[in-house]
Amino acid sequence: QVHLVESGGGLVQAGGSLRLSCAASGRTFSAYTMAWFRQAPGKERAFVAYITGPSGITPYADYADSVKGRFTISRDNAKNTVNLQMNSLKPEDTAVYYCAGRAQKSGSLYSSTYDDWGQGTQVTVSS
After folding, report:
1. Contacts of 125 (CB under 8 A, 6+ apart)
2. Is the Cβ–Cβ distance between 108 and 50 less than 8 Å?
3. What is the rounded distance in angstroms from the CA atom of residue 19 to the CA atom of residue 77?
4. In degrees rounded to 5, what are phi and psi of residue 93?
5. What is the distance in angstroms between the CA of the first residue and the CA of the last residue of the chain?
6. Tens-digit pLDDT profile for residues 77-125
């Protein structure tokens, strides 16, 4: 199990950028696949991106179609962090963003398959 804490959310104008970070505690972080999900008001939690984990193996990342080419997920196993660089932000990106982890080598698009969650950080994109 890992404890996750997100940071970096805020208010930004459309076209701008934000970088979210997720700090994890736990000795097994490098074995975890990490992901970002988001939840807009009145909507279900939705997949944003994931990145696989094990050290020494090139991580594999996948993205929701809506963010491909604009968002980049990365991780630093030495620092137990996973980041989400968000560029060319749009008003429809407004949501609470959650960091999530699962003790599996493979990624998943489904929130129910993730075991550990952060408290979320608000991202608001104004038009």
Report:
1. 11, 12, 13, 14, 16, 89, 90, 91, 92, 93, 94
2. yes
3. 18
4. -85, -5
5. 39
6. 889 999 999 999 999 999 999 999 999 888 999 999 999 999 999 999 9
